[in-house]
Structures are given as structure tokens and as C-alpha cells.
Write a structure and sequence with these properties.
Blueprint: H1 2-5, H2 7-10, H3 14-32, H4 37-50, H5 63-72, H6 76-88, H7 92-96, H8 100-106, H9 109-120, H10 125-132, H11 139-149, H12 161-173, H13 175-186, H14 189-192, H15 205-222, H16 227-242, H17 246-270, H18 274-277, H19 280-310, H20 329-341, H21 348-377
Helix pairs in contact: 3-4, 4-17, 5-17, 6-11, 6-16, 6-17, 8-19, 8-21, 9-10, 9-19, 10-11, 11-12, 11-21, 12-19, 13-19, 13-20, 15-16, 16-17, 20-21
Amino acid sequence: MAEELFEGFIGLDWRAVVMMLVGGLMIFLAIAYRFEPLLLLPIGLGAMAVNLPLGGLTGEHGIMTVLKENGLDNELFPLLMFLGLGALTDFTPLLQRPWTFLLGGAAQAGIFASLMAAIALNFSLREAGAIAIIGSADGPTTIFVATQLCPDSQACPNEVLGPVVVAAYSYMAMVPLIQPPIMKLLTTKAERSIPMEYTDRPIPRLLKILFPIVVLIIGGLLAPKAAPLLTMFMFGNLLRESGVVDRLSNTAQSELINIVTILLGLVIGSIMTGDTFLQLFTLKILGLGLGAFVIGTSAGVMFGKLMMVVSGRKINPLIGAAGVSAVPMAARVVQRMGQKERPDNFLLMHAMGPNVAGVIGSALAGGVLLSRVPALAG
């Protein structure tokens, strides 16, 4: 009787304890420091729950297994998430400053740099592509691309999907910690203090309606494999901007995205089992993912410095860091960094341009990986 009562404790090993502590740390950061609580809270609890021995959460009929198979493995959750994100996105800052498209594109350098680094570390081409997409700083894009590049053990013998997805969402939540040191290292105080005046130039309603349609068509032609992501994202934005389907737009912005966020967070946390994560292979993936974030941020800032020079110091290079796509976290980081140096400087709306451009850029970069990597891998 006593043995049955304590069988959970008997089956607990050190790896499970470590991962439960990691989950607890995520919950602490979410509550105490408000580090993206919408992500870290469900991920942290999921990680703690799945490492309970004999819990049955991931068995054949376990709730986490069911959610993973029907929401993650078939890409349903990331596509629904993109629909909600599209409905929440306002492209006005980007349309007011079309040149910020370039900053959003520059920040995708982290994807291709980490691709080459992963290949150099002897990951297979498909595995390297799945790891590289962490640099998109976009959770739904990461899941969408990684599940297609590594759908099973035949395509990728090593367990890649779990570490890749967890790394992507964890680093997204840690953007306020990861980006500021890089931004400070690559810029001077004078550069960070460059003022940028915000002019609220009105954008015609017709342009706002046409924009998602045009981006979908052009993006779908340039990177056909990115069409599902672009379709859901731009459809969500069209619901918002059309002004004739407020019920659908409000549902996508609130109920839909909230439900998907809860389920997706728990599923991601349930992937974080001790026997899978506490391996050198997984640590390499986490390291490469961090490197992708660092390079993407650095490329955005350096391109921002180039635009600063070309514009005659009218552009603050900090806004380039927002091109990594983590919306709106990266833009908020830019705002805070800029105001530390100059309290009257408001960079948020300027940073939102490259921020939303980064979402489009990461989807297109993911489409390129999906087109080229399987072809090269054979």
C-alpha cells in the first residue's frame, strides 16, 4: 500500500527534477517579471506536469499526445495562431515608412547564418533547416517549417522538433534580456539618442485593404511554400481592415488566439521531458538558436546604422533590432532602450514598421527553406 502511495516519488529521476525546476523558473519569470506571461506560464506548467512520473499525459491516449498530434504535428495550431496575429496586426507603421521593409529583411540573416553553422556541426541538411528557422523569432513559422522539414524519424533520425520549438518560444520570451546587450554593444550613446519624430500620416483605407491581398499574391509567387502562413496571416489582417466583419475580426483577435495560445503553450511545455532535453544534442540546438537570435538582431542594428548614415543621421539604428519579428516584444525593447538615452524620444511606432515587416520576411524565409532544403537533401 505504501509503495503504491509513493510510486510517483520512486519513479522520479534527476532529469525530470531538473526540467520541473526549469518549468518553475519560467512560471516565476512570467509572474514576477512579466516576461511574456502568455507564453511562459503555459509552457512552464506544461513542462512541470509532463515530467511527473506515471502522470499519463503523454501516453497513447494522453491529453498532451492528442493535442500534439492534432494541433502541432499537422500545423493546425501555428496556422490558427497566424490568423489571430494577422487580425491583431496594424500595418500602418510599415505603410507610412516602406523603407522599414529593408530592416525586416536584414534581420533574417540569423536564419541563414545558423543554417550554415548547423551544417558545420554535422547536423543533416533537414535538421539544419529546422534549427535555422529558430532565427525567425516567430513561433508559428518555426513550428510550420520544422514540422515539414522533420516530419518523422526517417527524415530526421534525431529528435529535433521538440528542442527547436521550445528554443524558439523561450528565446522569444527572453527578447528583453537577449537584445539590449547586443544593441548597446553595436551602437554608441550618441547613435542611440538620435531623435525620430513621429508623423501620423493617414493611410487610405483602400491601401490597407489591398495591402494584405497584394502581399499574399506576390509572396505566394516568390515563395510558394510560404503560402499557408501568408494566407492565414493576411486573411486575419483583411478581416481587420475590411471593416465589414467585425464579429469575425474580434473573434480572431480574442477568443480564437487566446484558446490557441493556451493549448499551444501547454503542448510546447509537454515536449520538455528530461530524457529528451538533457542531452548534448539538444544543448547544441539551443546554442544555435541563441546564435540565430544574436546574429539576426546584430544584422538588423548594423543595417540600421547603414540607413542612419545614408539618411544623414535621421534614423535611429536601434529600430533595426525590431526586424527579428518577435511582435511586439522587440519593438517595445527598442522603445525602452531609446528612452533610456533620451526620455523624450519615442521610437515605438518607428520600430513597429520593421517588426511587422519581419513577420512577412520570416514567413518568406521559411518558404525558401521548405523549397530548397528538401530538394538539396534529396
